[in-house]
């Protein structure tokens, strides 16, 4: 067993857009974990809250009014490579996500790999 440097990425996606976002992520071929591909985790639906302010272009809700929606937490990792991270964000995740300002959290981390 050894450790690999990685980026752990978490985002929240409205319930009705989960499958298109997952499909886009899987088509990128960046979600590999050892000898497996398309590896990600998602939660049961929860409730997200936001209030669009001036300058926002909300897909859901109105400027100045608090909004709640059902959403799913998607979580995945990619090996630590700045170029792949930028590709994933700019060419895959952000274009596939329906929000004009998607919440995306990136943490540097470690993941295990089998020595087999």
Describe it for me?
The protein has 2 helices and 7 strands. It has one domain (2-113): 2-Layer Sandwich (Alpha-Beta Plaits). The chain is elongated. α1 runs antiparallel to α2 (82-96). With 116 residues, it is α+β, with helices and mostly antiparallel strands.
Strands, helices and their partners?
Elements: E1 2-14, H1 18-27, E2 32-33, E3 36-37, E4 41-42, E5 46-50, E6 67-79, H2 82-96, E7 104-113
Antiparallel strand pairs: 1-6, 1-7, 2-3, 4-6, 5-6
Helix pairs in contact: 1-2
How would you briefly describe this protein structure?
The protein has 116 residues and is an alpha+beta fold.
- What CATH first level would be assigned? Alpha Beta
Helix content: 10-25%
* H/E topology pattern: EHEEEEEHE
What is the CATH topology classification name? Alpha-Beta Plaits
> Counting H and I runs of at least 4 residues, what is the number of helices?
2
Beta strands, count? 7
Beta-strand content bin: 35-45%
Major pleated sheet: 5 strands, antiparallel
Query: How does the helix and strand content classify structurally?
Result: alpha+beta
* Weakly predicted, low-confidence segments: none
| Gyration radius, in Å | 16 Å
The overall average pLDDT, rounded, is: 95
Inertia-based shape: elongated
Give the domain tally: 1
CATH architecture: 2-Layer Sandwich
C-alpha termini separation: 8 Å
């Amino acid at each position: 067993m050894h450790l690999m440097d990685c980026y752990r990425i978490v985002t929240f996606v409205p319930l009705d857009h989960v499958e298109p976002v997952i499909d886009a992520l899987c088509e990128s071929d960046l979600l590999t974990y050892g000898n497996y591909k398309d590896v990600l985790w998602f939660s049961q639906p929860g409730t997200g809250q936001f209030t669009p302010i001036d300058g926002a272009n909300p897909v859901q809700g109105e400027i100045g009014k608090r909004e709640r929606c059902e959403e799913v937490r998607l979580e995945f990792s990619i090996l630590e490579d700045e170029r792949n991270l930028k590709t994933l964000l700019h060419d895959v995740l952000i274009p596939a996500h329906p929000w004009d300002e998607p919440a995306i959290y990136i943490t540097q981390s470690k993941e295990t790999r089998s020595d087999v």
